[in-house]
């Protein structure tokens, strides 16, 4: 068994673990700081909207020896607007200029043909109106709102309303960070960016639901026992699914990182940047929010419930009494999954919820008979 697999097995059994819930204020502070930075970047720099949303012209040239920098300066001089130039695999160039109408487009095409030393007839010009981008944006907002409403309804029915709220907060957290990174980096926002944003919502929700499902199973009939508080079981749920979350995130990030850093950066395929950056940042933020935001927030909300408050008092009082008698006052997960915290028979049902107990084997079972069957 690999070291990571061995660690995952120990995390699931509760033999080791990290106190995610106990340090939740640190995670909240980090998330608030990152979110504020993203919002400030969005307010100060704004988003670099593509021509799909602002309208303009796209010129595609055949193979040319002119560099992208020279072509950019020529396009800006001819149009009077900022231009974005990307090198194509065919050796040609893709030139985007915002705020260009049909008459201006023909003039720019003629001047580009002279500057780039290519036939004007071989330069392909496509015009995009701003109304098309506005329609796409409106549909994206509609899809986002409908998605979040359905998510809240589903989680409230399948789990409970506190988990639905926590998942919604995590989704908003992921979107805000991703959009803020786009503003700070200055990458162009295109329809591919919108697709990437909608894609990461599903991934973030999937990772969150995995932890929530483990938490739901672990807290079944939680008030019938006095060994664990709700926060402790929530912490065990995070640790139990931690290796799975890490493995899933790494596997998802590797191909996206290849698109972003190798395809978009090293090979210069700039058209991959719009969707790959949103996926890369969103996947990382989704994994972070599932572990450090969503579940701790559920524990915070749940600890305000009167029954859970009473349970916590009973658990702490029982541990204090055990400490007064000279017994170990540690939380059960710190002692190992198979250790009994006390001899109270009322805890047997809880033990089945939070973890198995070691049962002594019968001394007379199968004595003298290899199969153990009755003759």
From TrEMBL:
A biological process term (GO) from this entry: intracellular protein transmembrane transport
Leader peptide range in chain numbering: none
Membrane-traversing stretches: 26-44, 140-157, 164-185, 191-212, 246-269, 275-299
Keywords of the record: Cell membrane, Membrane, Protein transport, Translocation, Transmembrane, Transmembrane helix, Transport
Basic residues: compositionally biased ranges: 364-375
Record's compositionally biased regions (Low complexity): 323-334
Pfam families to which the protein is assigned, alphabetical: Sec_GG, SecD_SecF_C
Residue segments, region Disordered: 323-375
Cross-referenced InterPro entries: SecD/SecF_arch_bac, SecD/SecF_bac, SecD/SecF_CS, SecD_SecF_C, SecD_SecF_C_bact, SecF_bac
Residue span(s) of domain Protein export membrane protein SecD/SecF C-terminal: 114-303
Keyword Transmembrane: yes
Mode of membrane association: Multi-pass membrane protein
GO cellular component: plasma membrane
Subcellular localization, as worded in the UniProt entry: Cell membrane
Molecular function GO labels: protein-transporting ATPase activity
Compositional bias (Acidic residues): 336-350
Assembly and binders: Forms a complex with SecD. Part of the essential Sec protein translocation apparatus which comprises SecA, SecYEG and auxiliary proteins SecDF. Other proteins may also be involved.
Family: Belongs to the SecD/SecF family. SecF subfamily.
PANTHER family in alphabetical order: PROTEIN TRANSLOCASE SUBUNIT SECF, PROTEIN-EXPORT MEMBRANE PROTEIN SEC
Function: Part of the Sec protein translocase complex. Interacts with the SecYEG preprotein conducting channel. SecDF uses the proton motive force (PMF) to complete protein translocation after the ATP-dependent function of SecA.
Protein name: Protein-export membrane protein SecF
């Amino acid at each position: 068994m690999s070291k990571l697999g061995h660690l995952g097995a120990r995390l699931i059994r509760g033999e080791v673990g990290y106190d995610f819930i106990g340090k939740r204020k640190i995670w909240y502070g980090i998330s608030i700081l990152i979110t504020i930075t993203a919002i400030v970047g969005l307010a100060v720099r704004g988003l670099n909207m593509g021509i799909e949303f602002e309208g303009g012209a796209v010129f595609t040239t055949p193979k040319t020896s002119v560099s992208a920098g020279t072509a950019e300066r020529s396009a800006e001089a001819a149009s009077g607007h900022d231009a974005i130039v990307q090198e194509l695999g065919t050796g040609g160039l893709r030139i985007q200029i915002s705020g260009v109408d049909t008459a201006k487009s023909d003039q720019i095409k003629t001047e580009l043909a002279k500057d780039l030393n290519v036939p004007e007839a071989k330069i392909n010009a496509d015009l995009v109106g701003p109304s098309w981008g506005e329609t796409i944006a409106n549909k994206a907002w509609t899809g986002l709102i409908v998605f979040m409403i359905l998510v809240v309804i589903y989680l409230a029915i399948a789990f409970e309303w506190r988990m639905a709220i926590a998942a919604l907060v995590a989704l908003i957290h992921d979107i805000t960070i991703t959009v803020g990174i786009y503003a700070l980096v200055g990458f162009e926002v295109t329809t591919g960016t919108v697709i990437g944003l909608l894609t990461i919502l599903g991934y973030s929700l999937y990772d969150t639901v995995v932890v929530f499902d483990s938490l739901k199973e672990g807290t079944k009939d939680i008030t019938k026992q006095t060994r664990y508080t709700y926060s402790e079981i929530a912490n065990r749920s995070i640790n139990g699914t931690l290796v799975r979350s890490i493995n899933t995130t790494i596997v998802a990030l590797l191909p996206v990182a290849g698109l972003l850093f190798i395809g978009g950066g090293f090979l210069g395929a700039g058209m991959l940047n719009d969707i790959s950056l949103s996926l890369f940042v969103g996947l990382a933020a989704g994994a972070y929010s599932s572990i450090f935001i969503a579940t701790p927030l559920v524990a915070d909300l749940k600890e305000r419930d009167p029954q859970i408050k009473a349970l916590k008092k009973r658990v702490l009082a029982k541990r204090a009494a055990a400490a007064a008698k000279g017994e170990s006052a540690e939380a059960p997960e710190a002692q190992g999954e198979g250790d009994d915290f006390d001899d109270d028979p009322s805890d047997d049902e809880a033990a089945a919820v939070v973890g198995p107990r070691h049962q002594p084997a019968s001394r007379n079972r199968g004595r003298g008979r290899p199969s153990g069957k009755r003759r």
